[in-house]
Amino acid sequence: MIAVIDYGVGNLKSVEKAFQFIGFDAKTTSDKEMILNADSVVLPGVGAFADAMDSLSQSGMIEVIQKVIDSGKPFLGICLGMQLLFDYSEEGGQNNKGLGILKGAIKLIPFGMNLKVPHMAGIAWNLKTNLRCLRGFPRNHMFTLFILIISIPMMRI
């Protein structure tokens, strides 16, 4: 069974239903024992980094996540869930502490623009960075952006 961690943030049921649609037994749960006994665990998330970390802390899920990771079971962070695994995030203009499971940070992409985050509209993007993950993107191209951050791992994964 795949446990989808319910910590009150994000698209939990849609993640559960996606796994079920492709034939997996998945359950959204906040039951710590069910999560610890699952075959694999998913940490989804949509929203603000700091709020999500507060929710994980208040729900007691930080310790559960660490135990799952330490056990070696498959663990997947999706979107904000993946971001939370890093040491910290610059989201909101400050360094918000993450889970510290993945060494590195969630950083603002240096666009040279001052945009509201999340920016949910098309923009003409004049790429001014040499980040490896952005190579191959055309310059001065229209994109629709939903977030303005990138994960920067301290080690190769």
From TrEMBL:
Heterodimer of HisH and HisF. This is Imidazole glycerol phosphate synthase amidotransferase subunit. GO terms for molecular function: glutaminase activity; imidazoleglycerol-phosphate synthase activity; lyase activity. PROSITE patterns: GATASE_TYPE_1 (PS51273). It comes from the Bacteria. Pathway: Amino-acid biosynthesis; L-histidine biosynthesis; L-histidine from 5-phospho-alpha-D-ribose 1-diphosphate: step 5/9. NCBIfam families: IMP_synth_hisH (TIGR01855).
